[in-house]
Each structure stands twice: as structure tokens, then as C-alpha cells.
User: Fold these one by one.
Assistant:
Number 1:
Amino acid sequence: THKIGRSDERMQFRRLFAEDNDFHAQQWVQERDNWLFGRAYYQRANDAVDVAGATLNFMEPVLFYSDRVRAQMFSGDALASDYHLKLEAETNRTTDPNERRQKIAEIDADMLRQIRGRWSVAEADLRAFADRQFAADDGTLYRISEYAEVEPQRQAKLAELEAFSPGLRDKLRDQKYAKLTDEQRSAVRLDPQARNEQQNRLAMEAEQLMFVDDLEFARNVDGAKRDIAIATANSLVKLNDRAFRIERAKKLIEYDYWLLRCELEQQDDTRAADRHFAMGSVAYRVDTDLVAAKREFEAGFKIWRKMLDKHPELMADQTGYAVVDHVTTYRQVLRQLDEPFPEPFILADMLKAHE
């Protein structure tokens, strides 16, 4: 599935996979999309563990159960590429303007509906996955969806602990700083970007030596509040462990990123930007209509500017690579029009992030 869907020849491989009647005649899964085909087998693997009692051996459960979800998301991504190809194929096929407009409208309606549908299923899959119960190494049970509840509790408990003695943590940290070697103090004061390898090592040592954990903080609270502070710190330690465990699982599968993708890919702006880029490519590669290509690409860039302003985390993510590819084509269009590349460019920060 991954070889077909991720290789440089993925467009050709996906088509060949879909058209291989001999192969599909032997399969119990009747699905011609490679990603959805894989999703069905991932579901079978999930059932083998959940229903039949198979063991995972050494595989991380969070990764194991996320494979099925990711296959659905990758299928949505792949369908967007198929959409571009269908538009190019149709415009290549016919020169009659009326017939072309009608066919493009049909492709738009059908493909955009399918793409939204794929991402809608992916979002439902991902949210259900987040509600799934996992067991940590110590046997503690947790769900990724609990993070929205646990993190505010952790922050509130931390504020409660700090209120026992405001400024105490900084005071303890300063005391530890005074005990560092001159080299460690010098390294920790340096801008991280300016440190060499040895200074990085010294700075890491210094940060570890200066670290004040919550129980140490509580034990240094003065007077009658100390015992209550220690009890609060013990509660905070448990919340810290739980939040860390859930956050680790989230990062392992890039949960926040994929949830955002699932939501955005169903929105009108995302689909409109994709359509502008597709039509820009068609105008350039098929019709050689440079003016129309320029207009379509610039319309897509404007929508992406709005999306980046709202979601800056998209700046250097993998969806940005496709946009950067469109910028490359846009440069070629301008070059053939004898027009300069705009300065400042509307997506200059995205280009810089992908350099």
C-alpha cells in the first residue's frame, strides 16, 4: 500500500493497481483504491487483536491502531491528486468549449464530493481513535481525547502549587545557578543558536542541575503550608505523568496536525484553493493559456494566505510542499510572460520555511 501510494511513480502505480483485474479477482477486499484496500486489511489486523486475542508483540499499540486511520487520510490526499489528473485528461480529450465546461463541472461535483467524503470519514475515524483506551507501561489506562481535560487540570494544580510561595522556584533556581561552573554559566547564557557542540552539552548539564521539580519546590515552602504544598505537589506529579503520557501518544501520530487536516480538507476555502491550482495547471500544461494560469494560481495563493494567517502551523507542514510546487509552476508562467516574480510575494514566509 505504501509503496504504491508513496513512491515517485505513485500516480502510475495507483492506476495500475486499480486496473489489475487478475489481482482483484483473488481478493476478499473488493476495493480498487490502494489506500482503502490497505485500510480494510488494517481493520482485519485490529480485529485479530481486539476480537481473536492476537498479541502485538513489540509494536507500539498507538501506532498499530493508527495505521487504519492514516490509510483513510492518505486516501483523501491521493484523491485530490487524482482530481488534478482527471481535469488534465478531460481538457486534453476535448477541444469543444461547451463540452469541456460540462465535463469539468461534472468532475468538480463528483471529485470534490468524494474528497470531502473521504476526509469526513477520516475525521470520524480519528476522533474514535482518540477515544480508544490504551494502557501505559505501568498499566495506567488513558485516552488521547482526555488531554483536553487533563491539561487544564494540570495547569490549575501548578498555579495552586506556585501560590504557596510565589517566586520560590526562581529563588531555588538562582541558588543552583550560583553553584554552576563558570563554563556552564557562560554556556547557558548564550543564545542556543550561537552555541557550539561543547557549549550545547554544557548548557544541557546546567539546565539539568538548575531544574526545580515540584516536590522539591513543595519541600521548601515555609511554615504550616508545607504539608499541604507537598500533597498538592504529589497530585501534580500524577497529573504531569498523565499529561506527558497522552501528549507523547499525540506526538507519536501527529494527532493535532491530522485532526486539523481532516477539518480543513472539508472546508470550502481548501477545496477552492485546490481547484484554482488544478485549473492553473490545466491552463498552463494543456491550453498554454498563460494569462489564465497566472490568474488561477494567484487566486489559490490568496486563499492560502488567509489559511496560513488563521493556521500558522501549516507553514512548514507537508501540505505546503504541494503549494510550493505550484509556486514553481507559477514562476515558469511568469517567465514565459516576461513578468517579474512579485516582491514581496504573498506566500514568501511559506517559501522560506520550505527552503
Number 2:
Amino acid sequence: MNGCPATAVRPSVGGWGAICASGALAVGVLASARPEVLFVALILGGALPMWLMEWRRAEPVQVEHSSRRGLSGGLTVSLMMIGSIWVQQTFGGSQGASVAPLMLPALISVVLMVIFCLLFPQKVGASIASVGEFIESPVAIVSRAGRERINMLGWCVKCLFLPLMLGSTLTWLQGLFAELPTQSMFVWFSVPMAAMYAIDTAFASIGYMSTTRRLDAHIRSVDNTWLGWLSALSCYPPLSVLVFDVWLIYKGSNDWIEWLHDGTFPASLWGGAILLLTGIYTWATIAFGPRFSNLTNRGIITHGPYRWGKHPAYLCKNLSWWMISVPFLPSLSGGQTLAHCLSLLAINGIYFVRARTEERHLLQDSVYRQYSAWIAEYGLFARVLQMFRRRAGDSV
């Protein structure tokens, strides 16, 4: 078996982005900046070094398009973004409500987009014009498989997830801002947790804003299966409101902090394990540099935690949920404990389906096929299994 395929993004790209983003966040916190200022500092602190390091790696493709297509594409993308924010804000529960502050900036951006498209339709980006070309043939929405379809689906992905990631970043920073002055014994846990999730969602936001060939971060392909989209959307509002809050309720009235509120060594050990899992989860997002995105292939990442396995983020997130929620707390009855465990197992199953559909999509890429074969032989679980087999053989 050959070595692991080269990663699409140098490890230093995400590394410097994380260092600068963390530095900007730390300076903002020390300066007692408002969450909105921390938000801007975190996004720019992470984005600018990565954009500078990756800029001009690939020249943009020039595509001629008509004025009509530029205008219709710009209008379509604008309406998709506004509609996405409205749906998330209206039906997305508390998590979806995080996008509310984005509505006014989005409306202003839409007005500017429309004005630009009216005045300079020929200068509209090729991907936006491609959306205009795509919608001119409604029948092709299901059957067309060319660049227009990829661009259309790519914009759907961005319009769905970018507002959520931006809103979540601001929400985590507000939580961080609220936790800092508290005297709780668990501030050592809550502050790093909020900071890591803020960095995670900020890097995800940067990824959705960086789909350009000048960064070699353009979308190569988009998952076009219903199961892939449904499993992904089930984890985000508004659909997650039904999945997590109505159908699969796994959280009880207590979590690990109430369970071990006395600050004992087991509590510290438990909290440290949760932080470790969250740190690996955040690292997995940082490893993408400016290429993070759901449901798309923008280059195969093979460094960082992806050197250990194909889905470190999903694995660590789901393990941390078991530890945070502790659905087996003795405060619950036997029936409640079983129901909560089964619900969380079902949610784990959704993420398993997400992982499998992502693999099915990425296996179209020859680099991912090589990476998948390498992980099957040299990944963390493969090495552990080989070690047990060797020990079992030695004991015979």
C-alpha cells in the first residue's frame, strides 16, 4: 500500500488561521470588547491569514454570460439567502433564532447585489451567472448533471448553512462573554467550551465564504442524493427542532455538571475528557482551512485528525454528547434512562448515515478512494485491531 495521499490543504494554513483567530479572540476578550466586535475579529483573524496563504493557487475560469443570466442568477441567490434566514428564524427554534441579527445585513446585501447586477450584469461572478442559466430550464433541475447543476446545489448549500454558522458563532461568543465574569467552579470548562465552538463555527463560516478558484477551494461536486441531504439537514434547524426536540429527546433535567457539582477529581476528569473530544472536533474543522462545507467535495483532507480516521469530527461530537448529557444518571427511572439512551443512539445513527452518504459521494474522487484504502490499513482503529490480533496470536 502506498503512503497516505497528499492533503488538499497544507496543515500550516488552518494552523495559522487558528493561531490568528485565537489571538484576535484573546485580545478582544482582554479588551472587554462586545460580542459583536469579537465576532468580526474572530472571522477576520481566521480568514485573512488563510486567504493570504492560499491566494492565486489556481486562476479563476472566465466564462462569458449574458446580462440576463447575471441578473437572474443574482436575484435567485439573493432570494435563496433571505428565504433561508427567514425559515431558520421562524421555524428553527432557539438555535435557528441565532440568525435573526443577520436579517438586516442580508437585506442590505441583497439590495446592493440587485443594484450591482442591474448596473454591471457582465461582471457578475461565473457561478452566480451559472445559477441564472440553470433556472432558465426548470426541467433540468432534476436531470441536469453539469457545472450549472453543481453551482446551483453549491449555492443551496451556502444559503442554508452560512447564516447558521455565522449566527452560531455570534451565539457562542455571547455565551463566552456571559461566562467570563462568573465565579462558578466550572468556568474552566464553560469558557474553553464556548471558545472552541465559536472557533469551530467561525471556521465553518469562513469555509462557506471561500468557494473560489483563486483559493483552489471551489466546489468540485455536490452530493445529489435525497438521503445525503436529509441526514445532513436533520442535524440543523429547522428540521433538527423536530428530530432533537420532539422525536428523539435524549437530554434529561440534569447533565454532568449537576451530577458532579461538588468539583471532585472525577468531575474534573470527566470535564477534561469532554474538552478533549471537543478540541479534536474543532481541530477537524480547522484542518479544512478555507474549504469546510457540508455536502460538497472541495478537495480531500488527509492531515490532522483525518490521519487517524475518516470521521473524527462526528465520532468526537457524538461521544461528547454521551458524556455531557449522561442519560444514564440515577435521577432518572429505568424506563426514562432506556428511552434517553435509545434516543441518543438514534441520533448517533443519523450521523452514521451522514458519514456513509458522505463516503459514497467522495468515493467518486480517486484521491478519496486512495485515502479510504490507506485508512483501512493504517488508520487508528486498524492499528488497534492489528495490535489485538497480534496479542491474541502471541497468546495462542
Number 3:
Amino acid sequence: MATIIAYLVAAAVAALVLSLPFGKTRVGSLLRRIAAFCAILVLVPAIVVSIVRVPPSDGGSGMSDVGCGVESLLALVVLSLVAWAFLFIRNWLARGRDRQRTPMMRRYRHRADNDLLEFLDRFTNGDRDA
């Protein structure tokens, strides 16, 4: 297990370092995604072991190894569902705000297609809404 983790860390660092010269290109983006994926995979064994392993009992807990692991897993599922619901509600509430800005942005959208000098010429000639 330690060998796999060491290889994953090495792959993450190598992909990150190799992505630096490529900047914002597709290759650089792909290498950074690979580095992030390897970094997350490094954490997976620690998370799995912490879920499955039972802390030392104080003598009267009566909880089995499987029960503690299942409880921890259910707690993670519930937390992820709560986080998903929060994000869904936030996006649902933000939809109305985007619709209000659309007519205003439509008025100025055609300006992006025009040449800057043409726009400045019209602006100085008094046609400010063009």
C-alpha cells in the first residue's frame, strides 16, 4: 500500500511540474487534472481505513467492527446529500438573478463584435446608444 501511495504522489508531482510550461493550453489543463486526480487517490486509502477501522473501545460500547464502519459510511452519505441539496437550492435561487440581467446585457452585446475604434468614433459623434 505504501508503494502505491508513493507512486501516486510521484505521479501527481510529475504531472503538476510538467503542466507548468504548457500554461492554459489543453495539454496543461489535462496534466493538472491528472495531478489532482492522483492527489485525491492518495487520500482514498486513509479515508477507507479510517471508516473501516474501529477506535479502541472503552469497555462498554458494544458496537461491532462492521457497525461502526457502516455508521461512518451512512454519516458521509447523509453529509453529501445535505451538501448536494444546499448547492441545488443555491442554484435555484440564483436563476432569477441571471434572468434580470439578460435584457440589460442584450443591449450591449453587439458592441463586442464591433471594432473599438468604430465604437469610439460613434461615441464621440453623439450616438451613445449605438
